[in-house]
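To whoever picks this up:

The nightly regression suite flagged EAL domain-containing protein as changed. Nothing in the input moved, so I suspect the structure step. Input below, exactly as stored in the fixture:
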Amino acid sequence: MTQCSNCSPANPIYEIKVTGEPNLIILPQIIPFLRSRDSLVCSTEETLFVNEAGISDLVDFCQDHMDVEQLTFRLNDGSWQPFREIRETLSSRWVDDIILQQRVICYSQPIVDDQGSVYAHEMLARFVQEDGSLLSPLTVFEAAKHRNRLYALDRLCRMTAVRSCKGLQGKVFINFIPTSIYSPQHCLQSTIQLARQLNINPSILVFEVVETEQVEDLEHLKSILGYYKDHGFQYALDDVGEGFSTIELLQQLKPHYMKLDKGFVQGVAISQEKQKIATAMLEAALQIDSVPLAEGIENEADFAWLRDNGFKLFQGYWFGRPSPVA
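Regenerated output under the current build:
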């Protein structure tokens, strides 16, 4: 079953796969009940498609009368998950309202050169609760992942960042999650069109790859970055030296900017181990003509060491904290 629910989180559909003979015996008995409640979208001999309005009651029933270890579910064609985790997905429903009501604002943090002059700004999303308080971005993106809403949330943040960058000095770094993008020519087209409508020169926008998990489809990531490059934009690789961002990947992707992870920046002035990693990443970046950028700088000693050893750009609380964009 395919439905276009990626741009809008309205009317989510749960697909439940049933295995195990006792469970399959019960399955036909509950279909008429679901249908009478207008909860059932459709069904097969071993699968139920149920709308969210009817899913809570079904979850209660399954936990009482079925072997949930032989049930799996997914939301709107997302990845399959154990049925026992479905309540976590249900408890994350609030993120749908964040997306539908576009309750996101942009903060910016300066990126400076070796003289301390502002070279660029990184756009950072902040999410607003109904009472006006801010939610942790990590909390919101985790909830979106549970709800299979990463595409919609990532798109909202990208579009808001482009709208908010008018008037900022220098280049503008905008985060995006590559695993949320299905097809570059479709998913990224609206971002490019918006930049054109606002008369934003593509050369000032730097799209920053944000990813905390192992990249499984490198060719897909290359196609995304190639699409951006073909339309005049630049791109950066974030968290280099940590997680998935290895020297090998750096060499394959050839980003315009290489951002050294803060874990290797903070304390680098007094740590030979961190100095060794920072130097290796710096050399790898220079070999592919990528501008080396150190993020997470919080004191002058780390800044001085990185500057004196060849890093060109710098970001961190030492130069300025994120602040709301007017």
